[in-house]
Amino acid sequence: MKLAFEAEDAIIGIVCGLLLLGLTGRFFSLKLNDFVYVIAFAALIIFIFLDIINEFRDLTTHFGLIMLSILHNLIDLVISLAFISHFTGWNIPYITPILVPYLQNESIIAGIGIFLVVSNAIWLLTIPFWM
Fold this sequence. Notes:
Elements: H1 8-24, H2 34-57, H3 63-88, H4 95-98, H5 106-130
C-alpha cells in the first residue's frame, strides 16, 4: 500500500521536523511561506494513513512493534493537524483550541521539530531489523 518504499513516512517526517527547526532558527534559519509548511504536513498525513493501512495489512511482524508504529503515526498525525491549523487558521475541532495555542512558543516548535527528526530517524535506522 506504500507508494515507492517502506520508509516514505519517516523521510517526510524528518523533512517536516527540519522545516520546523529552520522556522525557529535554533540550528539554522529557513523561513518559508506558510503554505510550504501546510503542503509538507499534508503530505505527511497522506503517508501516515498509507503507513497505518500497511501496518494492518502486514500483521506478520511483532504485535508490539505494530502497535508502537501505529502510536507513533497517531502522534505524528496530531502534530501535523496542529501545524496545518496553525499555518492556515482553519479550525479543527479539539486540535485548534487545545494544541495550537502551544505553537505560539518557539521552544515548543523546536522541541516538536526535534521529536519529528529523532523519532523518524530511529524508525528509519531500525527498518533493516524488522523487515
